[in-house]
Write a structure and sequence with these properties.
This protein is α/β, with parallel strands linked by helices. The protein is built from eleven helices and twelve strands. Helix 1 runs antiparallel to helix 8 and helix 10 packs across helix 11. Bound molecules: pyridoxal-5'-phosphate (PLP).
């Protein structure tokens, strides 16, 4: 019988078809592992064989998935809703908070738009005011924190929404400090965790986080179409079910399985985060996410973070020696698993990126930065391979 090998930090054996020589684009889209592929195939096989009979076991799988996610962020499974993406989670929140006209939403320049557009739309719908903070700089986080303090002291701040890790610089935001400030000023703290979950430890309790929205296709090592929204238990009662569907009701499924007389249109909407699971979700994507989080839990998020830092150290040192500028914070507490760099003057980042890609080094280039994002299957030895490829690319560009 074929058994699935246990995951090991620094081993690519679960990614046998990955073509890149070195894969450093986990902050963009992750390749999927053998167990994730097997889970999706199992869904398809079950639906092919059983049709509707496949539905109940895979619903049960989602409940298990929530338990694992909950353990990974130090929450309870009941405080999670499964949603299709980071954006879907943030949009649900922006729509369902019990806004009062004039409420303020604090946003940050340079944020990924997923954590901006829903708030801007809510501002138009509900008469809210957006307050902008400057883009946080890795070596000057106090400037951003001071701006946050000023905004909070000015009053009427209902929501502070930030990404746990800034997508273009890799700066890990000081979440516990922000959470404490929000609590002190009675503001609600929303975190977009898609650049963190899977590689950077998160603890919603210790960090004072009220809501987390996260998709699965980056550091979670899974597929698009799956994600979660965490709602702190004391925030549930105030959410308005402006986004609700047939699967938002208490016992809303019973009429399909338990005979006549149960099709009621006045069943209450659940006062639980999962009221936001409004209708059917992608079984395949959540099966994939289930297999992916099992791997992450087996490896341990802190262990993954610790494994990646020496890889980033080696890459950063080599690139600094070649005249690159690093955006990685010197304060270890503000680091993530992403290293963003700017090439030496005169080197076009897109041309460099294309040459690296052609040479089998997968990276990404958000907002003009070259972003190197290794994860648990990467190794320190790969840094030398990447640096050789960078040398070759720089020579190529210089000769052009
Ligand atoms: C910080 C951040 N938020 C959100 C997203 C994407 O959101 P979604 O999962 O809704 O596509 C990305 C990248 O794609 C991101 O870097």
């Amino acid at each position: 019988m074929k058994t699935t090998p246990l995951p090991q930090l620094g081993q690519r054996t679960l990614f046998p078809d990955l073509q890149s020589r070195v894969y450093l684009a986990h902050a963009a889209v992750s390749p999927v592992s053998t167990p994730v592929r097997a889970a999706v195939n199992a869904v398809l096989d079950d639906y092919a064989r059983l049709g509707v009979g496949a539905f109940p076991p895979w619903i049960a799988q989602r409940l298990r998935l929530k338990e694992v996610i909950a353990r990974l962020i130090h929450a309870e499974a009941d405080d999670l809703a499964l949603v299709q993406s980071t954006t879907a989670g943030l949009m649900a929140l922006a729509l369902c908070l019990d806004w009062k006209p004039g409420d303020r939403v604090v946003l940050t320049r340079g944020e990924f738009p997923a954590n901006v557009t829903p708030w801007q739309q809510a501002a138009k719908q509900f008469g809210l005011e957006i307050v902008w903070l400057p883009q946080p700089q890795p070596e000057a986080i106090d400037v951003w924190l001071d701006a946050l303090r000023i905004a909070l002291r000015a009053g009427r701040v209902r929501v502070v929404a930030v990404s746990a890790v800034q997508f273009q610089t890799g700066l890990q935001m000081p979440l516990a400090t922000i959470g404490a400030l929000c609590q002190a000023h009675d503001a609600e703290f929303v975190v977009d965790a898609v650049q963190a979950f899977g590689a950077v430890p998160l603890n919603v309790r210790e960090m004072g986080i009220d809501y987390v929205a996260c998709g699965a296709h980056k550091w979670c090592n899974s597929l698009e179409g799956a994600g979660f929204l965490y709602v702190a238990p004391h925030r549930i009662a105030a959410l308005q079910p402006r986004m609700a569907g047939w699967l938002s009701h208490e016992d809303g499924l019973l009429f399909l399985f338990r005979g006549a007389g149960l099709l009621l249109h006045d069943r209450p909407i659940r006062q639980r985060a999962d009221f936001l699971e409004i209708g059917n979700l992608s079984t395949a994507s959540f099966a994939a996410m289930g297999a992916a989080v099992d791997l992450l839990e087996a490896l341990g998020i802190q262990a993954i973070f610790n494994h990646v830092q020496p890889i980033l150290d080696a890459l950063e040192a080599g690139l600094l020696a070649r005249g690159f500028t690093s955006m990685r914070a010197t304060d270890p507490a503000l680091r993530s698993c992403t290293l963003s760099i700017l090439p030496p003057q005169g080197v076009d980042v897109l041309s460099l990126y294309k040459l690296l890609t052609a040479d089998g080094i997968a990276t990404s280039v958000p907002d003009g930065y070259l972003r190197l994002a290794p994860h648990w299957p990467n190794t320190v030895d790969e840094a030398a391979v990447v640096l050789d490829a960078v040398d070759a690319a720089l020579q190529n560009l210089a000769a052009a």
